[in-house]
Amino acid sequence: MSQSFDAKRVTAPDIAKRKGGAPVMALTAYHAHTARIVDPHVDIMLVGDSLGMVMHGYETTVPVPLDLMIMHAQAVVRGSSKALVVVDMPFGSYEESPQIAFRNAARVLKETGCGAIKLEGGVHMADTIRYLTSRGVPVMSHIGLTPQAVNVIGSFQPQGRHRSEWAAFEADAKAVADAGAFAVVIEALAELLAARITKQISIPTIGIGASAECDGQILVLEDMLGLSPRVPKFVKEYAQLGGAIEAAVKAYSSEVRTRAFPSDANTYPMFEDDDEATKKSKMTGS
Ligand code: KIV
Question: Which of 65, 67, 161, 244 has a Cα-to-Cα distance from 265 of 20 to 30 A?
């Protein structure tokens, strides 16, 4: 898939310049139809690997393959024209070496036409972030709770709620900023610490379960629409689409059973000039 550079889209440097300014507005999107709805209202659309849990029913994001991320990202790029599309590098596609990270990130940029990638990790990913950004790959970092590390952490619990843990998270934030990330997602981190990090570093912080003082906010679209069965405390549900969809499916099912659907409004009558011929053929059975 070849994509020309789209100057109308928000770019990674545009986001970097938003440090301390108007809040950066971000949501996830996994498909063309939701991208179309979200695009005019956000600066960033993240094709998050949360799609593995939300869309594909996995227990964690660990099993998500790179090809699946690419397929969803292509749909989101096709369905949008304004927001910066950022694509998550899934577990196993970037940790091994900066070179492997580059090879896979280049595939994501080339095959989807997105504007940046996101990867999880702080201090230990700094060399990779430096390698990628110096070779034309804009990187959004992700620190705090890093869901791809769930098997090491042991749960999706919020992080940094003891002051003794703060130094490590502060070092992560500083390392990714120094390495050239254009922004950093801070997930499920103690509020005070997220606000403190936001003041300490020079790139925008995008909070999710973090702090209103972050330079921007992101939520998983399906979580805030009430479509996800289990949502963390940090999610605010702005709609209850799960219930609305179920009500619609029930109504459809009842109308099909009673043959109320499809009605004349939903079917195609013959053209008038063909009516006589139709009647005749019905009578003669031809
Ligand atoms: O995968 C995802 O949707 C994310 C957000 C939670 C930031 O990384």
Answer: 244
Residue 286 pLDDT: 54
Q: Which of 185, 214, 228 to mutate to test the pocket of ligand 1 (most atoms within 8 A of CB)?
A: 185
SS3 157: coil
Q: How far is CA 268 from the centre of its chain?
A: 40
Name the pTM for this structure: 0.92
d(CA 105, CA 66): 10
Q: Which two tokens mark 152?
A: 């090491």
**252-261 mean pLDDT:** 97
Active site residues: 187
pLDDT of residue 161: 96
Q: What is the pLDDT of residues 162-178, one digit of tens each?
A: 999 999 999 999 999 99
Query: Residue 195: CB within 6 Å of ligand 1?
Result: no
pLDDT in tens, 102-133: 999 999 999 999 999 999 999 999 999 999 99
Nearest in space to 124 (alpha carbons), one of 104, 107, 143: 143
Relative to the CA of 118, which ligand 1 atom is closest?
A: 8
- Domain ranges in the chain are 12-239, 243-281
Architecture of domain 12-239: Alpha-Beta Barrel (3.20)
Cβ count near 122 (within 10 Å): 24
Say whether 85 sits in a helix, a strand or coil.
Answer: strand
